[in-house]
From TrEMBL, chain A:
Necessary cofactors: Mg(2+)
Domain of life of the organism encoding this protein: Bacteria
Domain Hen1 N-terminal: 1-239
Protein name: Small RNA 2'-O-methyltransferase
Keyword tags: Magnesium, Metal-binding, Methyltransferase, RNA-binding, RNA-mediated gene silencing, S-adenosyl-L-methionine, Transferase
InterPro entries, alphabetized: 3'-RNA_MeTfrase_Hen1_bac (IPR024026), Hen1 (IPR026610), Hen1_N (IPR024740), Hen1_N_sf (IPR038546), SAM-dependent_MTases_sf (IPR029063)
Catalytic activity of the protein: small RNA 3'-end nucleotide + S-adenosyl-L-methionine = small RNA 3'-end 2'-O-methylnucleotide + S-adenosyl-L-homocysteine + H(+)
From TrEMBL, chain B:
Gene3D superfamilies associated with the record: 3.60.21.10, DNA ligase/mRNA capping enzyme (3.30.470.30), P-loop containing nucleotide triphosphate hydrolases (3.40.50.300)
Alphabetized UniProt keyword annotations: Kinase, Transferase
Top-level taxon: Bacteria
CDD domains assigned to the protein according to its UniProt record, in alphabetical order: MPP_Prp_like
Molecular function GO terms recorded: kinase activity; phosphatase activity
Name this protein carries in UniProt: Polynucleotide kinase-phosphatase
GO cellular component: cytoplasm
Organism: Sulfobacillus benefaciens
Pfam family, one: AAA_33
Transferase recorded as keyword: yes
Domain Polynucleotide kinase-phosphatase ligase span(s) in chain numbering: 469-846
Residues annotated as domain Calcineurin-like phosphoesterase: 181-377
Amino acid sequence: MILTITTTYRPATDLGFLLHKHPDKVQTFPLPFGHAHVFFPEADEDRCTAALLLDIDSLDIVRSKAQGRKMAGHYVNDRPYTISSFMAVAIAKVFGTALSGHCRAREALPDQAIPLQAHLSVLPSDEGEPLIRRIFEPLGYEVEVQKTLLDPAFAEWGEAPYYAVTLRAVISLHRLLNHLYVLIPVLDNDKHYYIADDEVAKLLQHGKGWLNSHPERETISWRYLKHNSRLTQTALSRMAYGSQAGSSPEEGPSHRPVPLREQRIQTVLDVLKASEVSRILDLGCGEGELLRHLIQEPVFNELVGVDVSLATLAKAKDRLHLDTLPERQSRRVKLWHGSLIYRDRRLEGFDAATVTEVIEHIEPALLPAFDRALFEFARPRVVIVTTPNREYNRLFESLGPDTLRHADHRFEWTRQQFTDWAEQAAAQFGYQVRIQGIGPEDPVLGSPTQMGVFQRK
Amino acid sequence: MTVNIPELSLVVLIGASGSGKTRFAQQHFQSSEILSSDACRAMVSDDETNQEATHDAFDVLYYIARKRLERGRLTVIDATNVETRARHSLIALGREYHFLMTAIVLNLPENVLIERNKIRDDRHIPHNVVHRQLRALTPSLSRLRREGFHQVIMLSSEDEIDGFKWKRQPLWNNKTHEHGPFDIVGDVHGCFDELQALTGKLGYRLLRIDGRYHIEHPQNRKLIFLGDLVDRGPGIMEVLRLVMDGVDEGSALAVMGNHESKLLQKIQGRDVTLSHGLRQSLEQLDQEPADFTKRVKDFLDSLVSHYVLDGGRLVVAHAGLPESMHGRGSARVRNFALYGETTGETDEFGLPIRYNWASDYRGKAIVVYGHTPVPYPQWLNRTLNIDTGCVFGGQLTAFRYPEKELMAVPALKTYFDPIRPLGTRTESESVNLQQEHDSLLDIADFMGQKRIHTRLIGDVVIPEENTSAALETLSRYAVSPQWLIYLPPTMSPAETSTLPGILEHPREAFSYFHTQGVSHLICEPKHMGSRAVVIVCRDEKTSRVRFGVSEESTGIVYTRTGRKFFTYPELDSQVLERIREAVERSGLFTLLKSDWLMLDAEIMPWSLKAEELLKEQYAGLGRAALMGFDAAETAFSRAQERGLALSELAERFSGKKARVEQFIQTYRRYSWPVRGIGDIKLAPFHLLASEGEVHSGRDHLWHLDMIRRLSAVDPGLFQDTKAVQIDTNDQKSIAQGVKWWEELTEQGYEGMVVKPLFYIARNSRGKLVQPAIKVRGREYLRIIYGPDYTADDNLANLRQRFVGTKRRMALREFALGIEGLNRFVDREPLRRVHECAQGVLALESEGVDSRL
């Protein structure tokens, strides 16, 4: 809500010249989502502080054109009160000249490093204090972070994801403002307008001279560009020398690469090829990752992806380029909306079905329905089911003892649980099942993924 | 001459070009009944003479013909049809839909045709074309019956054509005008004593006057026999005599069974093996005079395969009948009705394994049938087999329509040994046939646009995109379909108030009901928790037998979107057990004569389900705002010390801060930590249903009275819902209601719910009135509209909100909810219940202002 910038440079009141604001005036500027007020709580020779106060009405944001999707859904929202991307917009609007490094009255001063202190009253951070430090400390700031409880009446709710942050450095004002302009939205991680192509240009412009040497430049670009991989890729490759163009930000640059996924696909592909099948169902196809690989194999004549989410199917259609693929190719692939806990006559008569990383998303009470729909009614000759091996979770540093790998997982099975389920289903519906692991095998805990290959008797 | 053409006919006009088919068709049939090849040519190519478009034109013609035949509409094909091949395809089409084939041949001499073609002004057909057509047609004229036409009408001169008249003739099986009441009797197989006992029990008097039976019933009920009257049993001739006399005098109906068919063949002199009890029939027939045999032969010959009764709501057939065959007449229909359909495999007793047509049955009509003995009748998808194997020592069963009750008498002895044992005769303690079938629902019943008929407001139409969205929710988050009987409707707020500083006020709710002609209202406090539907069963057996669930449990608690309420299994079972105990001790199971009941309730605290929302949105806002305001205050006071003119701004911000503090106070009220069951409160306000009854016919006083019995035995868990009655004609009463709302909201309640005293209320035009209107408190609305909503300009903006869409949704969801409950209580197939729940979820996926 309020950002203050303090200097102890002498004469400190030069801050007024730098910001193009008279220290003895209270000024108000209109913004698309409310108003910005600028005034100076302190202004003498030794110390001068400028305050930028945002006066935002949540109902105004809802009405304004600048609203983002998230805002529209939530009328009760913290963003009018935090140092959010609204603040970045206000900086550009109210301190535009200073941001660009100009000062007519004191021509040399903008580039001069002076002792500065910025106080951000309510800085959000979804990854807590460490993220704030990782982002500001490499830029030479002394960072002071003040934490509070979310609500003292409910201590069990823990720490608030908002921090009162003070940054201190001897630095030029326009550099400080550029840092804030880029990094406030990065911490906000929830820009209030849709991402446009010119955001890359803005990022490069305001990040000039510091971003490409920042160790967290990937995280910064990824979050600034609203997790848009194409734009992030562009931004990183356009950053000057020293950048690692080409690294995949698909999962977010801060996460480790996931070769397990590819191993899983390769294993499934190998089983399918060895089974001499040509009409294949991919049940719970998601965005079509497996299908994309199956399409490459001309021996597979008919590929049908089934998913319960229409939104996901639309993405799959895009990612598989079904609209632009040559007709002979696209004719082999179909995407159907369906659900695995209902009987579906469209799914009868296929050679094989793959159900990769799907059953763990089904409520346990509905699993018997899934078993019947798949093995009793769809009844393909070959069924391949993969699911996480819970025992292996211990080897993932980021997972707590009782945490599952994904928030939507309803369960994760140990090898014994998976074997029990698979053997019971096979016996009940007349299949033979073979179980194997996928991924690096730990002598005690097994592989990260487990796979059951069912063969109809 | 006037000919009769059966109502389910595919009429094929046959005649060369110029024979006047089109004019003939237009003269005698409705234009919508005629499918003309010329018209189809024009449709696809803009030129009705374009022979090159013939193939595409016939594609269109066949497509439309199929749709009409599927729907059972008489259809006339106006094309030359002179080629055998063309007629052959039409006959195949008719067969596919069990239609009767009628050929009308306009058989004019070549010279007449040529003359006619000359004077046609629309087109000129060359002589050689007409000649070729006749050469193809003439030799086949005598073969038309053999080709497969049931009826051939030959019009061989212009006079005959001009004199043609026809009448639409209902099929023999069409008894839609007979509305009952009926008593439908299963396979008798000569068990006359039992038949006599059963008819007596059903209230019939059988009189014998001059050697003939007269069947009388004080309510003029009619007996319907499902066939297999003969063979095996000891009193075959007496059974026949009774049924024949009854059919003759119009007090009974009978359809043919496979045993009648075989007996008829034998009497007609064909060579059939004397197995399956035919010998008994023949031996007993031998004792009778010859004219009796003649009578039996004529009777058997007159029997039809099935009847469609009561406006199409009831179908009777010996071995059952799929919907596509109802009311149709063909050899295949007859075969199915007599023998059923078999898979081609046999079971361990060497008997054919039957295709279970009933499990695929989706028709609206009830189908009552027999043929295969079962231990006791069980509904499956509105079909019922009532052959309980009397002759094998079982029972003789009757189904009473429209009462849908069963009545049976036991066999006096085993007259014939069954090949396959009859099985146990008691209803087992496990799931029934319908539940077994319903344990896996078919997705086809839940996709695409849905039209759900409700008893309260007629059809509710749900667009495809909403159905799809609901299917996803159901698949990913919901409890088992077996539990998901009911989802509560959304509730509309009162219209916007015009009082200063107030957005919602009880006066608008009272006046809404008053203008709808509902003056007797009841107000209840709106508990601030999370909505929950609770199903409690007396024991695990009840949840298995009545609900068909496979999980071991005595009930469930789920949210208004169908998710399991308690995510910790331990808490879940503790709460359920505590509720079950309370219901048991309160005597409600006994009072309601039910082993289960369903409650509509609110569970507190709100934070139990909504902790994430409270933390992230409400507490987050509060914390962020206070941090910001504190920093701003510091800056203000420093600046003011310097003499800057900031008082207006500072005041404005302190006003904002005060409103945020009120906001924080409000959300804190609805939140407390839950460490165990002791921290949970359950406030039921509707007793939705119990065995045999949906309690929507009761007023809210009854509901609250029932619920008070629960809080009386377990006040620790159950929270009472107080109530105040309002008479909208009485200003004093209205003022009391307003005062109560003020008190409630001051006490921290979310607000008040205003309902008609009766659960279901209609206005003077018979339209359903909102079942409830909420009036939320001024402070509660702060967490809905944001801390600053009470500021004047904000309030002015918010007053423009519109409640119409929300109200329409509330009514439709209410109607669907009540419909689902009724269907469950009526023991309808699960898909019929499930579609109502899906409907509510689907409507909820519609984007409506979530703050309303």
